[in-house]
Amino acid sequence: MRWIFPLLLALAGMGAPAVQAGPWARAPGEVFLSFSQNMSTSAEALASGTEQISAYSSIYAELGLGRRLTLGLDFGRGEFTDEAILFLRRTLTRPDARIQVGVDLGYGERRVDVLGESQLARIGLSVGRGFDAAALDWLPMGMTGGWVGLDAIAVYDLSRDEPRWKVEATVGLRPTERVSLMLQVIAEEWPGAEVSFGLNPSVVFQIREGTSIELGARTSLGDNPRIGLELGLWHQF
């Protein structure tokens, strides 16, 4: 995975302001970067007072290439694993379409302690729609805008012949131009495990032009229920 860090440096050296990740095509040179740290523990450990906290760090990056093409990078590091996937997304709809649709293909690597490295192939589908303030005037509190999105991703481990999938629905609302409220509902399945579900509420604060902080709760319900907190930094170039 030595290629990931030069690529991140290349992305960081380019671009202009961007919006949240999703099927929306990025203009040539636009860059979106997010860095996040997740700390979680099992529900059993939390109930017993046992300190069994796990950490997971992630980096997500997008670069607009033009012609409705976006280059993306998804990297994550846990206690025993590292995973990096480079993907290319094509937005199928025109920029002025009310509903945006994008598809992506990707390739990457996953390293697991003891098991070693394996190669990954990814395919994804994203659908999203944005809303202006007028479309949200039925809400009890004023909103400057919002969006809904649905992302479905399948990753196939080429080395171990194992598939996994994840579906994520997101609702976002902006009560002010500097604050966004988000709620994500996630379903995913890993090899040898039951389907797990997650409910992730978060708040995003813009602390200065181009830079925002995300504060959120993370829950996972399945074979091993977990609860945690996440701190993220979003930067737009």
Any overview of this molecule?
The chain has 237 residues and is mainly beta. The chain has one domain (4-236): monomeric porin ompg (Porin). Helices cover 6% and strands 63% of the residues. It has two helices and twelve strands. It has helices at 4-12, 43-48, and strands spanning 31-42, 54-66, 69-77, 81-91, 99-112, 116-132, 145-157, 162-176, 179-189, 196-208, 211-220, 226-236. A twelve-stranded antiparallel β-barrel has the order 1-2-3-4-5-6-7-8-9-10-11-12. A hairpin with a 4-residue loop joins strand 7 and strand 8 (162-176). The two termini are 25 Å apart. The model is unreliable at 3-19 (pLDDT under 50).
Q: Would you tell me the structural class of the helices and strands?
A: mainly beta
Number of strands: 12
What would CATH call the architecture?
A: Beta Barrel
As for the CATH topology, it is: Porin
Helix content: under 10%
CATH superfamily: monomeric porin ompg
Largest sheet: 12 strands, antiparallel, barrel
Estimated radius of gyration: 18 Å
Q: Numbering strands along the chain, what is their spatial order in the largest sheet?
A: 1-2-3-4-5-6-7-8-9-10-11-12
